[in-house]
TrEMBL record:
Lineage of origin: Bacteria, Bacillati, Bacillota, Bacilli, Bacillales
Family membership: Belongs to the HAD-like hydrolase superfamily. NagD family.
Cofactor: Mg(2+)
Keyword Transport: no
InterPro entries reported in the protein's UniProt record: HAD-like_sf, HAD-SF_hydro_IIA, HAD-SF_hydro_IIA_hyp1, HAD_sf
Keyword Cytoplasm applies: no
A Pfam family assignment: Hydrolase_6
Protein name: TIGR01457 family HAD-type hydrolase
Keywords, comma-separated and alphabetical: Hydrolase, Magnesium, Metal-binding
Organism per entry: Lysinibacillus louembei
Record GO terms (molecular function): hydrolase activity
């Protein structure tokens, strides 16, 4: 296998499932660190702050620098700051997106006259929140999703992810949502710019073809699909655009 300077790992389904670590990925990351290579962690999960992601990785035996953790919440907050800085923004989501928006000085409201509705995964989502979001969008608000993932793997099996709720709101309001996270290459572009890597020095590693692998393909770097999460190897092999390599797990990396 080719050697890279920047190994960019997806998290859910690639490094862990729920609170259970994926041993082959953790061992590979630890080996890279022993060789002096510090991986990057790129997640569409907007429920956690970078500090909370860091703590979760630490509990699995991975010491990850904060500046190597990139979440869709951070990228979404930057977009909202650029386009809705002085406006009201309605938010459905958890700590990750709420803290990221607050740190940008965004005016968060529950009002239905908001200029934008930002949706990240909210494990306490209910009918009232969804209804309020629908009304705000019908009043002219822009629908923004931190990511479009339809499901993610847990220890027990697949559960709904943020995209499933965003599409529900989009269907009711007959609008087209804007998704910020993968497969958009924004996070990979940020890594390349901040750390001065060229595309051929980077690799994107992930379990979800529609997000992780397409993100790397659209960015223009190598991609490694692992058969440990959302998309099976068989499902990947029928896609028109193929990853650089398919592995059953990171234990196969020679």
């Amino acid at each position: 296998m080719k050697r890279y300077k920047a190994y960019c790992f997806d998290l859910d389904g690639t490094v862990y499932r729920g609170d259970e670590g994926i041993a082959s990925a953790i061992a590979f990351i630890q080996k890279l660190q022993q060789e002096g290579i510090e991986p990057f962690y790129i997640t569409n999960n907007a429920t956690k702050t970078p500090e909370q992601v860091q703590q979760k990785l630490a509990a699995l035996g991975i010491a990850a620098p904060l500046q190597h953790i990139y979440t869709s919440a951070l990228v979404t907050a930057t977009y909202v700051e650029q386009h809705f800085r002085q406006m009201k923004v309605q938010v459905i989501g958890s700590d990750g997106i709420r803290v990221a928006l607050a740190e940008k000085g965004i005016h968060i409201t529950n009002d239905e006259d908001a200029s934008a509705v930002v949706m990240g995964l909210d494990r306490e989502i209910n009918y009232a929140k969804l209804a309020s979001a629908c009304l705000a969008i019908q009043n002219g608000a822009k629908l923004i999703g931190t990511n479009g993932d339809m499901k993610f793997p847990t220890e027990q099996g697949f559960v709904p992810a943020n995209g499933s709720f965003v599409h529900l709101v989009a269907t009711v309001t007959e609008t087209e949502p804007l998704f910020i996270g993968k497969p958009s290459p924004i996070m990979l572009e940020a890594i390349a710019q901040a750390h001065h890597y060229s595309k051929n020095e980077m690799v994107m590693i992930g379990d979800n073809y529609q997000t992780d692998i397409l993100c790397g393909i659209r960015f223009g770097c190598d991609t490694i699909h692992v058969n440990t999460g959302v998309t099976s190897t068989a499902q990947v092999q029928v896609q028109q655009e193929q990853p650089t390599c398919c592995l059953s797990s990171m234990a196969e990396w020679a």
